[in-house]
Every structure is written in C-alpha cells, then in structure tokens.
Amino acid sequence: MRTLLLTILALLPAFAHAAAPRPTNIVTCEEWKSDPAPIPDERKHTPRYITLHHAGVLWTNSQTPEQFLRNMQAWGKRRPEIEQPPRNTYWPDLPYHFLIAPDGRIFEGRPVEYEPESNTKYELAGNLGVEMMGDFNQQRPSPAQLESAVRLAAWLADAHKIAADDIRTHQDAAPGSTTCPGADFYRYFNSGEFKQWVQQVQQGQEPQIIPGAPLPDGPVEVITETKKR
Ligand SMILES: [Zn+2]
C-alpha cells in the first residue's frame, strides 16, 4: 500500500502542471497609492473570462503610469458630474483589474472580486479586465508590455481556473462596438500566437514571444518611441 502511494506521488508531477507563477513585476495598489471608493457588494462576481483592452489613447510618455492611473481613477469617481448620459455612471474604482505600462510593469487596479466597468454594452460580470496603456491602432505595444500581458494572463487563468479559450479581447466580448485592443495587438489573437505563448508559460516554459512585422496600413512606431504629436 505504502509503495503504491509513493509511486503515485512520484508520478504526479508528470501529469499535473504547476500553476503559472505570479508575475514578478506587479505594482500593488498600496505601492502606487491607489485611492478607490468602496464598491457595493452586489457588484461581486466570479471570474470566467480574461478580457484584454488597450487604453485607446496615444501614449507619448508625457505622464508617468502612476499619474495616468490616478487621473483615470479620479475621473471615474467624478463621471456623474462631468460626463453626459449614458457615460455619467459612477465608477468607484478603476474600470480594469490590471493595467500594463509601456515599460512592462503591471499595476493592480480594481480588486478581482468585483466586476469591471465599460462604456460598451456587454455582460460585465465574469470578466477580469486587463488594460494595456496606449493606442495600438496608432502605435505598437512594446515587447515588455506583450510579455507582461502573456505572463499575467497565464497566471490569472491558472489562479481562477479559466480556460485558454476564454482569454479574449474587448472586441470579442462586444463584437461590432469597438476596435479595442487595437490592430497591432489584436493580431496576436487572430493568429493564435497569444494563446500559444500563454500555454508555454502554463507549461513552465519560457514564452517564445516574437513581435510580428508592422501590419500593412498598421502602426510602425513602438509605444516607447512615440513622441508627442
Ligand atoms: Zn476595451
């Protein structure tokens, strides 16, 4: 009996893959001095998808990622005063759960136990929202940003038992209503490469992330090189 048990234990690592590790470059809410308002309990949800976004705003390095986050968070809380319907809903915290800076740092946003926010119509409950700073219809994600998106998605998928096929983008969640996350990032979902890279991390390998050549009619400049226009 004991021998059988030991044999089973010895074989286990060959079958069960170890969970993808938490990315080492996460900046916690405490570290960037997040200042959210309380989120009501009725907005708690169970994550079923990882949904990727871009900010949709050209990143020109004119502010730090920390300033960008503080501004977005403050704006969300003031929406009822400063925005027109239907955009005037109150956002107590950042609309996304994680936000990835051009240098690859991953900032914590809204706690994962609460559903996100959006200005497009789709079922918000169940989504873990990951936003990449920048506009990938006008600039290209940096290699560091791509790698962080892959490692974060792999870790979240394992931690929340989300299948690789349920890692998607905003335009997959809300077809026809947005071009988010931008052509030069969406290409890696079209090609299946993003999913491959995630699975490499989940299998304990180094992801073989190779950015593609600029798309025909797509942006050429990488986000870290974009100058103010
Ligand atoms: Zn989006």
Can you give a write-up of this model?
Residues 35-182 form the N-acetylmuramoyl-L-alanine amidase domain. InterPro entries: Amidase/PGRP_sf (IPR036505), Amidase_domain (IPR002502), PGRP (IPR015510), PGRP_domain_met/bac (IPR006619). GO terms for molecular function: N-acetylmuramoyl-L-alanine amidase activity; zinc ion binding. Strands 1-4-3-5-2-6 form a 6-stranded mixed sheet. 33% of the residues lie in helices and 10% in strands. The model has no long low-confidence stretch (mean pLDDT 94). It has helices spanning 2-15, 29-32, 65-82, 143-159, 170-173, 183-190, 193-202; strands at residues 26-27, 49-54, 98-100, 106-108, 127-132, 167-169. It has a single domain (23-29, 45-214), classed as Lysozyme-like. α4 crosses α7 (193-202). The protein is built from 7 helices and 6 strands, in the order αβαβαβββαβααα. Bound molecules: zinc ion. Residues 53, 170, 178, 180 line the site of zinc ion.
Quickly list its features.
229 residues, alpha/beta, Lysozyme-like, 6-stranded mixed sheet, 6 strands, globular, binds zinc ion, PGRP, N-acetylmuramoyl-L-alanine amidase activity
**How is the biggest beta sheet arranged?**
6 strands, mixed
Question: Which distinct ligands sit in these coordinates?
Answer: zinc ion
Number of strands: 6
- The CATH superfamily bears the name Peptidoglycan recognition protein-like
Task: Just give the CATH class.
Answer: Alpha Beta
Strand content: 5-15%
Shape: globular
CATH topology: Lysozyme-like
Domain unit count: 1
Quote the distance from N terminus to C terminus: 72 Å
Give me the CATH architecture, please: 3-Layer(aba) Sandwich
Helicity level: 25-40%
- Describe the strand arrangement of the main beta sheet, using strand numbers: 1-4-3-5-2-6
Q: Please, how many helices?
A: 7
Average pLDDT, to the nearest integer? 94
Q: Look at the helices and sheets and give the structural class.
A: alpha/beta
Rg calc: 19 Å
Q: Provide the low-confidence segments as ranges.
A: none
Strand/helix succession = HEHEHEEEHEHHH
Family: Belongs to the N-acetylmuramoyl-L-alanine amidase 2 family.
Signal peptide: 1-18
InterPro entries: Amidase/PGRP_sf (IPR036505), Amidase_domain (IPR002502), PGRP (IPR015510), PGRP_domain_met/bac (IPR006619)
Keywords: Signal
